[in-house]
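can u pls check wat happens w/ 5-amino-5-deoxy-1-O-phosphono-D-mannitol
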Amino acid sequence: ELGGYEDFMLKEIHEQPAALQATLAGRLDAGGRVDLSELGLDLSGIERVVIVACGTAYHAGLLGKSALERLARVPVEVAVASEYRYGDPVGDEGTLVVAISQSGETTDTLAAIEAARAFGARVLAVTNTQGSLITREADAVLLTKAGPEVGVAATKTFLTQVAALYLLALGVAGVRGARPAGELEEIGRALRRSPEKVEEGIELLGERLMSEAVGVFAGARCALFLGRGQSFPVALEGALKLKEISYLPAEGYPAGEMKHGPIALVDEQCPVVAILGEGTLREKTLSNVEETVARGARVIAVANEGDAAAERIAQSVLPVPTVPEILSPLVSAVPLQFLAYHVAKARGLDVDKPRNLAKSVTVE
Ligand code: M6R
């Protein structure tokens, strides 16, 4: 079953290109046009989107928000399902609730759907499990096709959730005419190539680079993951991966928030993992990271291949291939999965079955 891999988590990280490919197949043509007619939903009438989810799926939801708002210009709220269900939520028939759940069995996510039903929302489920409870509660289902995920830490299901949300954003943007068709198709074509880019990224991360990065964690007592824009949810996901399998306290923060509190944590035993991203935000993140270096932080940077500024400030650079900025989370999440994996293995831990955790949370 492990197919030569030491653990399921490692196997599932490597399965990501194929999982992405399967999720995009039949929904995105060679010209970059998206077809979501399988949903049977009228995407043109959506006035507002609410995304509900837990854990890793919530982080995918944050990325879905940024894609939907940027491409489709629809307002999006993202809520942790356990909060949303008790929050007396506001909405109407023009609200599309997108409930994301790998297992399709998470109690809080199911209860959040019920809460939204009370105001007449339509519900789209994004799930990896055909026939799960969520598929029965929803009006429409967008299936991620990652295949079964055994490791408790979500990896390939995260990437496919993000890809599914990009498809949704492109689909909604198309029917609303929110962006020129040519621009959407260009992103669509790049999304179609994302499985190759993720594969390329996996190949870039040789053993030497990974052991250098793990070396930065020697003696660490905590870690800070920093990013801005789309790299912020990636930072949250990187921190969650690290804490759940290595048991190191880790926080994901928007890099610009550092001086409002968390920079007090910084010293040689609290490495900073910086997801630099691209565009103007890269410069901003770099300057936030430089401030941590001045306070003794050891830095791991996730940056494009050949990023000289990253090489200058970081003890270790985990390179990612260049993709259009909006798709960058698909490549930048992967080195963080490997990082968490190798740090946990270096500590002799069971990465597939971390303590205190279950693969699916069917109690409140
Ligand atoms: O099955 P779900 O997607 O609803 O599960 C939600 C969370 O429990 C899950 O994403 C959890 O955070 C991950 N296993 C963490 O890696």
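The longest strand covers residues 95-101.
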